[in-house]
Specification:
flat, 59% helix
């Protein structure tokens, strides 16, 4: 076991400043994200009806296995009739262009702008912090991890330390940065609440969480024929069925043993 004597001043001048700066950056990013968020565009009643009908059809197809056969057939009849009849479609706009470029749609441009804002608020602060750490706190060891690591992590966690035989558990300041980047979620939740922009895992990784509403919005593209989409969905709903190994299990057991 390698034993190194670390200067106690590293705790006061390296560990705590890096952690304090990352907490401060997370709080600022949370508030900046709230300030830069634009108010969502309100949908009309007809657009909401179209989306909710498609959401109900998607949900039925994904969860039909939990329903009884009679319930499945009743829901199939209702959804197929609602999707094919067109009574849930909004009235067609005669002035709307038939072949709309998706990049010219207001909703698409708004989503791209929101995504760009989120990426900038994530990338720019982290780039500044990493540059600051590499410039002022590189070239020395600051802590020892309580768990072992493989040799592939040496170039990351011992950046600036040109020692070949040093154990990977002894890491430099850049490793403390990564530990704080993925380990401050509880601190952010304590300071900002559970649903905050700083500790959100999807926001940290630059990913959007998947949801049924998101799936519907991705399915309905700008300029797409909603009536055609509903007809296709009605065909998908029509072939939904349920085959269970437990059907007529009582009679099969009685026939086997009696």
């Amino acid at each position: 076991m390698q034993q190194l004597l670390l200067d106690p001043a590293l705790r006061n001048w390296v560990l705590l400043p890096i952690m304090f700066v990352m907490i401060l950056i997370g709080v600022l990013r949370h508030n900046a994200t709230i300030l830069l968020q634009s108010s969502p565009k309100r949908l009309t009643k007809e657009e909401i009806r179209e989306q909710r009908l498609l959401q109900r059809a998607f949900s039925f197809r994904n969860n039909a296995c939990f329903l009884l056969p009679d319930s499945i057939e009743k829901r199939k009849d209702f959804l197929v009739d609602a999707l094919r009849s067109g009574k849930y479609l909004k009235p067609a706009d005669p002035n709307a262009p038939k072949n709309l470029n998706p990049m010219m749609d207001d909703k698409t441009l708004e989503n791209l702008m929101e995504s760009m804002k989120g990426n900038m608020l994530m990338v720019v602060p982290q780039t500044i912090i990493m540059t600051w750490i590499n410039e002022f706190f590189s070239g020395f060891i600051i802590l020892k991890l309580p768990f072992p690591l493989t040799y592939q992590f040496k170039s990351i966690f011992q950046s600036g330390v040109a020692t070949q035989d040093l154990s990977i558990q002894w890491v430099s300041s850049i490793s403390w940065y990564f530990l704080n980047l993925f380990g401050l979620k509880s601190v952010y939740a304590l300071l900002l609440g559970e649903n905050n922009m700083a500790s959100n895992a999807e926001n940290e990784m630059g990913m959007a969480g998947f949801s049924l509403t998101a799936a519907t919005s991705q399915t309905i593209q700008p300029g797409q024929d909603i009536a055609k989409l509903m007809r296709l969905e009605s065909e998908n709903v029509q072939i939904v069925g349920k085959n269970s190994l437990l059907e007529d299990v009582e009679s099969r057991i009685l026939k086997q043993f009696f």
